[in-house]
Design a protein that fits this description.
The chain is α/β, with parallel strands linked by helices. It has three domains: 80 residues, no CATH class; 271 residues, 3-Layer(aba) Sandwich (Aminopeptidase), CATH 3.40.630.10; 144 residues, Glucose Oxidase, domain 1 (3-Layer(bba) Sandwich). Helices cover 35% and strands 23% of the residues. It contains 16 helices and 19 strands. An eight-stranded mixed β-sheet has the order 2-11-13-12-14-17-15-16. Strands 4-3-10-6-7-8-9-5 form an eight-stranded mixed β-sheet, sandwiched between helices. It has a three-stranded mixed β-sheet with strand order 1-19-18. α3 crosses α14 and α15 crosses α16. The chain is elongated. The protein starts with 9 loop residues before the first strand and ends with a helix. The N terminus is likely disordered. Bound molecules: 2-acetamido-2-deoxy-beta-D-glucopyranose (4 copies) and zinc ion (ZN). The site of one 2-acetamido-2-deoxy-beta-D-glucopyranose has 5 residues, from α10. Belongs to the peptidase M28 family.
Length: 541
Amino acid sequence: MKYLSLIFFMSLLPQYAGKSLRRDGSHPRTFEDIKNEIAGYSDTAKAIIDLAVHGKAQNRSYERLAVFADTVGPRLSGSKNLDAAIQYMFSALQKDGLENVHLEPVKVPHWERGEEFAVMLEPRNHSIAILGLGSSVATPPEGITAEVMVVASFDELHRRAQEAKGKIVVYNQPFVTYGETVRYRSQGAVEAAKVGAVASLIRSIASFSIDSPHTGWQNYQSGVPRIPTACISVEDAEMMSRMALRGTKIVVYLKMGARTYPDSPSFNTVAEIVGNKYPEQIVLVSGHLDSWDVGQGAMDDGGGAFISWEALSLIKDLGLRPKRTLRMVLWTGEEQGGVGAEQYYQLHKENISNFDIVMESDEGTFKPSGLAFTGNAKARDIIKEIMALLLPINVTDVFDNADGTDINYWMRDGVPGASLRDDLSKYFWFHHSQGDTMTVQDPNQMNLCAAVWTVVSYVIADMEEMLPRGPRVRKSNKPEHSSFCGDLGLWLMETAELAIRMYCPGQILHFVNVGGDGEKSSDLQKASALLCFWKHSQKLS
Ligand SMILES: *[C@@H]1O[C@H](CO)[C@@H](O)[C@H](O)[C@H]1NC(C)=O
Ligand SMILES: *[C@@H]1O[C@H](CO)[C@@H](O)[C@H](O)[C@H]1NC(C)=O
Ligand SMILES: *[C@@H]1O[C@H](CO)[C@@H](O)[C@H](O)[C@H]1NC(C)=O
Ligand SMILES: *[C@@H]1O[C@H](CO)[C@@H](O)[C@H](O)[C@H]1NC(C)=O
Ligand SMILES: [Zn+2]
C-alpha cells in the first residue's frame, strides 16, 4: 500500500501535443521565426496597454469590481451570496456582449460558521476575536471551557503530548511563509485531537495584524476525533504565549455554532471570444468568484476574476478576434480546495490536447511584476518574447512555477500554465480576513494587471502555433495520502518533474499525490522532495 501511494513508471509521452511541424508539413519553424512573429504584435500590445492604462478603459476593472463587491459582498461556497454573484456575473457578461456566456453546474461544499465567540476567563476576562475554520465542527451548545496549552510548533506539541489531554491547544507558530506556515491551519486540529485536546485555536496565517483573525479551510482525518477549531489574532496568540511562559494558568471559554450541510448546486461561470481560425483550441484565463465569508473578497479573488473579464472586454473593444478561442472561467468552490476547477477538469480533459495554456490570477492584483510560467524550456523562451511586449509598462519578467489551485489539474497533465506575479508584500495582511475589501484594491495597479493579462492571453491565442508542451508530471485522478514522502504535495511533484526533465527527457512520470496544492517550497523542502523521489526510484527500478 505504501509503495502504491507513489506509483511512478516511465512511458513515452503520449501527448506531445504542441505541434512542432507546420500544418502544411514543411520544416518546423525556427525560434527566429517565432521571435519575429511575436515582435509583429508590438502595435497590438501597445494598443491594449493604451486602452487599459491610459484610455477609455482606464479603471474599468476596478470600477466594475467595486460595484460587484459592494453589491454582493462576500461569497462563501454554498451561500446565497455566491448564487447572487454568479447570477450577477452571468448577466454582466452577457450585457458586455461576450460570446457563449454560460454556467456549468458543479456541486460545492456548504459549511456555515454560525454564531461563534471566545472569551478568556483566567487570568483575566478578555474577549478573543476568532474566526472558525472552514469545515470545523461546532462546540456542544453550552460551549467548551478548558485550560489552554500554548505551543509554538507541532514538535513542541508532540514533546509535551501528555499535557494536552482535555485542553484547548493554542498554536503560536511564527509566520515564515504562507506555504510553510499554513499547515498549522490545515492540520492543527488533527494534531491537537491526536493528543487528546478538546479544541484548537490557531494563530492566523498573517504577515501583519491589527487584531484580525484570518480564516481558511482545514482538514479532519478519518479515525481522529473532530474537534472545533478557529483562528485567533497574532496579538492574542502572542499574549497567551507570554502568559504561559510566565507559568500563568489560562482558561478559555469557546462557543462555535458551525454546521456542514449537504453539498450545494453551484456553477463555474464561462464567457468566450470565439477563435476565428482554430475555435476548438482554448486559451483559458481565470480567477475564482467564491471567497470567504468575511470582508468583500475583493482581493481574493475579486481582482483576479475581474482582470480576467477585463481581458476579454479589452480585446472585444479593440475589435480583435484571435485565431484561438479565449475562454474566461470564473471558478466556484476554490476556497474549499478547488472544487469547481476539479469538476471542470474532469468534464473537459478529453479535450486536453486543445488547451494551449491555462492562466489564473489568484495572488492579488497589486503592482504587477511579471508572469510565473510552468512549461518546458522552449515554451518558456516563447513566453519571454511575449513578455517583452510589455516593456512600455516595464513588466517583462518571467518567473518559475505558475501558481493557482484551479489550474494545477491541467498543468500536472502537461498543459502550460501561467499566473500573474505582483507585489505580494501586503497580501497576507488582508488574506481571508475582514480586511479583504475594496479599500486594498488600487485602480492604477489593476489597470497594469489587466494589461499584462490581456497581452499575454491575446498573443498566445493568436499565434500561428500552440505553445510546445513537453514532459510533465502526471497526477492520477484519485489523490491518495502518501505516508513516506510526508505532506510534500506540489513541492514533490515540481521537483520530481525537474529531475525527470534533467535525467529522463522525453518520459513522463505518473504518481499519486498527497495534497498540499498551491503551497510554495523552500529549498530545503525541494531538496527533501528530490531525495525522496530518488530513493523511491531506486527501490522501484
Ligand atoms: C482612475 O483612478 C485614478 C486613481 O484613483 C484617478 O486619478 C483617475 O482620475 C481615474 N481615471 C478615471 C478615468 O476615472
Ligand atoms: C469575568 O466574566 C464573568 C462572566 O462573563 C463574570 O462572572 C466575572 O465576574 C468576570 N470576572 C472579572 C474579574 O471581571
Ligand atoms: C471538446 O471539443 C469539441 C470540439 O471543439 C467540442 O465540440 C466538445 O464539446 C468538447 N468537449 C467538452 C467536454 O468540452
Ligand atoms: C523596471 O522594473 C524593474 C524591476 O522589474 C526595476 O528595477 C526598474 O527600476 C524599473 N524601471 C523603470 C523605468 O520603472
Ligand atoms: Zn484565492
